[in-house]
């Protein structure tokens, strides 16, 4: 890709945002969802169409459907009604959005993204809007507005960074979610969201891998982990009566560099002798329902508790995934709980009771591992990661929907010796999105992804130049899938890894064979060679 | 054009007040009728709006967390920015409402030479905070007009506000601050291209209206030297439901009064309702405890799921040949009916 393709500039906004006209350019849109995927999920208006088409083949009464849908959601969600009403347009959110910074498109200012919806709300649902129309900030709902919604609500990664800065906590993710729900009602959805959702619904995971294929992938990883360590590592599938159901994003057993994180988990579980199982039915932690509708989120998420109940496990352990944890942390218990058939999670190794997961009974792998490290139960040799100079990207959802900030850092600082933070206003709750979340991570949308990811890449570049950082760690499957492309474009020479990949490198397992290479097969840094028999283990 | 319309409407209101104040019929309408209408609109509108929000349920637990969660004793949690208890939520809300915590984080992003530069930016926070506190102080000072005897705290606030003892009558700091802050917010709306781009009629109207109220107030106090006793007589009469406009109030007073009535009537139907809405914001007023306490969704609709029996039925042979345990006994009846939960 030529260096000049993506020019990042700052441009003063021009024109009037109330003009809904949008130019659909390749590179900055996601293609429409295939009719078969809508069919598989019993969604309305399956048909062949593309955003570039003049005629979107909307149902004849689309306007009524959208307005009725809005009315219903205004009644069901306080967030929606409130966020439609109280914005004062102070502009604090404007330059907090990675898509605005990267594209200089003024409709990517979070406030304007919300105004695209608010203007319709005012026109049809408020007294002043009905009386005064555009003077009161109202707009007519036209087909062009639908197209504009499609463009901009699929140009928001629901990362919630703007909400951190909003004096009223207005959350653009809520508005984008409503926008997408309304678009779904008239069949305007993207394939990158609905195909994984349809696959997940049917087979259990985004990739549509059937149970035998799932087993092959898992077995392959277990064999590789066995080979690396010289130990016998097996992964139980659909085993009843295990203590823990382990749920991970499907990318972990299908994608790279996710795969190395999976090896890390498997080695950890083997070393501590965890009594666990994975499930082929609930073989997906991720939930693309979050990117389409609350209803779809619930439909896909239901499998996890159902499977935990069927397998009679005591609690659920969840792998590294951002939006999966948004759902597990903020939605699962409400939607598909109560989890009264499970027990309050207790670490079988340290005896720690995970009080913060007392009700959902779902623990984040970083919480689990950080607790192990804190108690000194793991033998770690951080020198095995000396070939990495790492930084950590707070994935949006764990940061802004949970506050899972120090647990991954605790692990990182115990498993590697070269760790440098990116600038303060680009990490933790102020972290910049990868630019590809919320179902935007498809190649046809690459230009917009590179634009949206620019602020994140820029912060990586800063620590690369300052500290020689060559590894960006993260705990999100979408990050791992899309950050490599982003960094290759903006900051060549920086790799992407999960936290548990580095743990897997550093973990000194009982009876392991001498290890000379990391999970990627890259040789350890010279002075770390003799680590196979390292006697000095590093504990937190 | 929005800004011009907004200015014209505010000027028209002020002019109506000025003109009405010079006619006996106008004085009666402005001092004895309109204030009641405005008060009714304000109270009813405000309650209605709050109720509209309050009636809508909060189906999901969606706080935006701005710091470390409470997990282990050995990791220090951000008790206020990521509260896990109701006390923490109280502190977070207090910080939002009294100190504009989130706005305090504001930064400015600039792109130059292919780099993104983030810098501190406190002006919006400072001017917004100064404006709101000054406005509150001014409102509380106005209690002097409605209460007899004047409460001690009102006198104390006045002494504090006129601390510098400049001029006669002494200059209230809050008057200076409110006009300066409104002026800054207005200039920012004009000069910052992004903010100008997003500004609607209502954004300018609110600022012009507040400025006009402040300016007419200042004119009365420092320049036309209105007799406060007359104002108090009217205010007490209004409060006692026996309104009687005394002589000698002057046209500027009526302009001030009409502008205030316009603000009160307009507020419930405008973005100025943020003063009530902030208390209900679900990203701020919920504790981050959704994994330790179940949040209930009052309309938790059943949905169609793909159940395990359906799944096993479809993949049974593949499961068996892969050696994955199956659940349903051989030859069992059709287990594939969709279950809703």
Automatic annotation (TrEMBL), chain A:
<keyword id="KW-0479">Metal-binding</keyword>
<dbReference type="InterPro" id="IPR009051">
    <property type="entry name" value="Helical_ferredxn"/>
</dbReference>
<feature type="domain" description="4Fe-4S ferredoxin-type">
    <location>
        <begin position="78"/>
        <end position="107"/>
    </location>
</feature>
<dbReference type="InterPro" id="IPR017900">
    <property type="entry name" value="4Fe4S_Fe_S_CS"/>
</dbReference>
<dbReference type="InterPro" id="IPR017896">
    <property type="entry name" value="4Fe4S_Fe-S-bd"/>
</dbReference>
<dbReference type="Pfam" id="PF13183">
    <property type="entry name" value="Fer4_8"/>
</dbReference>
<dbReference type="InterPro" id="IPR004017">
    <property type="entry name" value="Cys_rich_dom"/>
</dbReference>
<keyword id="KW-0004">4Fe-4S</keyword>
<feature type="domain" description="4Fe-4S ferredoxin-type">
    <location>
        <begin position="147"/>
        <end position="176"/>
    </location>
</feature>
<dbReference type="Pfam" id="PF02754">
    <property type="entry name" value="CCG"/>
</dbReference>
<keyword id="KW-0408">Iron</keyword>
<keyword id="KW-0813">Transport</keyword>
<dbReference type="GO" id="GO:0046872">
    <property type="term" value="F:metal ion binding"/>
</dbReference>
<keyword id="KW-0249">Electron transport</keyword>
<dbReference type="GO" id="GO:0051539">
    <property type="term" value="F:4 iron, 4 sulfur cluster binding"/>
</dbReference>
<keyword id="KW-0411">Iron-sulfur</keyword>
<dbReference type="GO" id="GO:0016491">
    <property type="term" value="F:oxidoreductase activity"/>
</dbReference>
<protein>
    <submittedName>
        <fullName>Hdr-like menaquinol oxidoreductase iron-sulfur subunit 2</fullName>
    </submittedName>
</protein>
């Amino acid at each position: 890709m030529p260096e000049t393709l993506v020019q990042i500039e700052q441009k003063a906004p021009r024109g009037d945002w109330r003009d809904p006209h949008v130019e659909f350019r390749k590179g900055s849109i996601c293609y429409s969802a295939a009719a078969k995927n809508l069919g598989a999920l019993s969604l309305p208006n399956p048909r062949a169409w593309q955003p570039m088409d003049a005629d979107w083949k909307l149902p004849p009464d689309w306007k009524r459907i959208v307005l009725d849908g809005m009315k219903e959601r205004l009644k069901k969600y306080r967030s929606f009604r409130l966020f439609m009403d109280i914005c004062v347009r102070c502009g604090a959110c404007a330059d907090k959005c990675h898509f605005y910074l990267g594209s200089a498109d003024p409709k990517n200012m979070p406030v304007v993204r919300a105004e695209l919806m608010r203007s319709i709300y005012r026109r049809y649902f408020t007294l002043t809007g009905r009386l005064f129309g555009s003077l009161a900030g109202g707009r007519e709902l036209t087909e062009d507005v639908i197209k504009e919604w499609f463009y901009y609500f699929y140009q928001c990664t629901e990362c919630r960074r703007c909400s951190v800065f909003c004096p009223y906590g207005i959350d653009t993710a809520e508005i984008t979610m409503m926008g997408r729900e309304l678009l779904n009602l008239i069949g305007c959805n993207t394939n990158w969201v609905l195909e994984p959702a349809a696959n997940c619904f049917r087979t259990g995971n985004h990739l549509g891998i059937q149970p035998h294929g799932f087993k092959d992938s898992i077995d392959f990883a277990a064999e590789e982990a066995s080979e690396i360590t010289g130990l016998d590592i097996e992964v139980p599938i659909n085993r009843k009566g295990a203590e823990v159901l382990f749920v991970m994003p499907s990318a972990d057993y299908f994608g790279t560099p996710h795969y190395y994180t999976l090896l890390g988990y498997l080695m950890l579980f083997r070393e501590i002798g965890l009594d666990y199982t994975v499930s082929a039915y609930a073989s997906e932690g991720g939930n693309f329902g979050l990117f389409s509708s609350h209803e779809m989120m619930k439909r896909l998420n239901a499998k996890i508790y159902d499977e935990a109940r069927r397998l009679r496990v005591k609690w659920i352990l969840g792998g590294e995934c951002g939006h999966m944890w948004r759902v597990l942390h903020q939605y699962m218990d409400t939607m598909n709980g109560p989890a009264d058939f499970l027990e309050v999670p207790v670490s079988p190794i340290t005896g720690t009771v995970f009080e913060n997961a007392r009700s959902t009974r779902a623990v984040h792998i970083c919480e689990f591992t950080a607790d192990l490290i804190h108690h000194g139960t793991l033998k770690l040799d951080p020198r095995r990661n000396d070939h990495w100079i790492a930084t950590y990207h707070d994935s949006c959802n764990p940061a802004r929907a949970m506050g899972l900030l120090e647990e991954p850092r605790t692990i990182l600082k115990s498993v590697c010796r070269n760790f440098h933070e990116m600038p303060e206003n680009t990490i933790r709750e102020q972290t910049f999105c990868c630019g590809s979340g919320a179902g935007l991570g498809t190649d046809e949308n690459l230009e917009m992804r590179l634009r949206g990811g620019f602020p994140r890449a820029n912060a990586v570049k800063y620590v690369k130049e300052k500290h020689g950082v060559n590894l960006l760690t993260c705990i999100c499957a979408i990050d791992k899938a899309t950050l490599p492309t982003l960094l290759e474009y903006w900051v060549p020479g920086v790799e992407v890894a999960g936290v548990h990949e580095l743990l897997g490198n550093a973990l000194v397992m009982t009876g392991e064979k001498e290890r000379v290479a990391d999970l990627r097969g890259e040789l350890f840094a010279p002075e770390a060679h003799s680590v196979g028999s390292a006697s000095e283990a590093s504990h937190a | 054009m929005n800004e011009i319309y907004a200015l014209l409407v505010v000027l028209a209101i002020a002019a109506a007040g000025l003109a009405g104040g010079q006619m006996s019929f106008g004085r009666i309408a402005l001092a004895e009728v309109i204030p009641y209408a405005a008060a009714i609109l304000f109270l009813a509108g405000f309650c209605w709006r709050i109720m509209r929000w309050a009636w809508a349920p909060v189906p999901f637990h969606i706080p935006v967390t701005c710091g470390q969660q409470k997990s282990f004793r050995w990791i220090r949690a951000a008790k206020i920015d990521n509260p896990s208890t109701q006390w923490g939520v109280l502190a977070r809300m207090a910080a939002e409402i009294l100190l504009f915590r989130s706005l305090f984080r504001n930064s400015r992003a600039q792109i130059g030479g292919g780099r993104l530069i983030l810098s501190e930016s406190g002006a919006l926070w400072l001017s917004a905070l100064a404006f709101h506190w000054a406005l509150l102080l001014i409102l509380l000072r106005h209690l002097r007009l409605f209460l007899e005897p004047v409460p001690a705290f009102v006198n104390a606030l006045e002494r504090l506000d006129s601390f510098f003892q400049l001029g006669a009558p002494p200059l209230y700091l809050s008057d200076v601050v409110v006009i300066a802050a409104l002026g800054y917010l207005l200039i920012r709306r004009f000069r910052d291209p992004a903010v100008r781009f997003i500004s609607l009629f209502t954004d300018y109207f609110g600022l012009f209206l507040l400025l006009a109220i402040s300016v007419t107030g200042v004119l009365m106090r420092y320049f036309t030297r209105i007799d406060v006793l007359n104002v108090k007589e009217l205010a007490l009469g209004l409060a006692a439901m026996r309104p009687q406009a005394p002589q000698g109030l002057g046209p500027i007073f009526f302009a001030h009064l009409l502008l205030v009535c316009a603000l009160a009537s307009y507020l419930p139907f405008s973005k100025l309702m943020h003063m009530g809405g902030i208390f209900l914001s679900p990203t701020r007023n919920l504790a981050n405890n959704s994994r330790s306490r179940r949040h209930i969704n009052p309309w938790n609709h059943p949905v169609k799921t793909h159940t395990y029996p359906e799944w096993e039925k479809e993949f049974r042979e593949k499961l068996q040949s892969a050696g994955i345990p199956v659940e349903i006994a051989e030859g069992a009846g059709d287990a594939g009916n969709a279950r809703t939960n």
